[in-house]
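Structure first, sequence second, as always.
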């Protein structure tokens, strides 16, 4: 089926069917790994805004009880890419101590953000700490960070849609698409 793409979009990297299929597989794996867990012990922590659609789809597919919570971080606008400086601007409501925490992130790029999250949440005495990340760009990694559940490895292109943005645009496209390089390269 042909779809009408926004002008800035180069090509569709992952269509809705592909994403749905993979998210189902991830949910099945997570459900198996956390089998028998109680609702109050299992906390999914979504990283806003990028993970909001992934979080919604993944959590709906889980077959184990769980709670959802969200955090928000500062973005590349203040040079996080160059410096690795990440700052939390909204914290979880739920107490993390003693709970099994699964961080839900949209994309792993340099690795600084996830590394920061491991350190912050790791220091809060969770019962366990794991990560579910939809996309990874291995070529871009600056530091090594472990990921427990990964959706797709993708090439070094700027992707948008399914929650991911460029300057807060294209977030609600139902597919994941590569932007035309002239849009994001200065
Ligand atoms: P990292 O700290 O470099 O791993 O960056 C991770 C964050 O950068 C993600 O949570 C996204 O917000 C953002 N990001 C990196 N690459 C992309 C992309 O291709 N599209 C949209 N956001 C991206
Ligand atoms: Mg993000």
């Amino acid at each position: 089926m042909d779809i009408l793409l926004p002008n800035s979009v180069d090509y569709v990297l992952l269509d809705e069917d592909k994403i749905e299929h993979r998210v189902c597989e991830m949910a099945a794996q997570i459900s198996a790994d956390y089998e028998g867990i109680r609702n109050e012990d299992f906390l999914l922590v979504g990283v806003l805004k990028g993970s909001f659609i992934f979080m919604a789809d993944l959590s709906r597919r889980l077959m184990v009880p769980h709670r959802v919570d969200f955090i928000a971080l500062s973005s590349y606008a203040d040079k996080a890419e160059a410096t690795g400086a990440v700052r939390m601007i909204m914290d979880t409501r739920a107490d993390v101590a003693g709970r099994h925490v699964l961080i839900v992130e949209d994309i792993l790029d340099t690795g600084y953000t996830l590394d920061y999250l491991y350190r912050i949440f790791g220091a809060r005495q969770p019962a366990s700490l794991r990560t579910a990340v939809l996309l990874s760009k291995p070529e871009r990694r600056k530091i090594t960070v472990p990921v427990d559940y990964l959706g797709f490895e993708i090439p070094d292109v700027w992707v948008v849609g399914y929650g991911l943005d460029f300057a807060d645009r294209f977030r609600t496209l139902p597919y994941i698409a590569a932007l035309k390089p002239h849009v994001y390269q200065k």
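Margin note: The mean pLDDT is 94.
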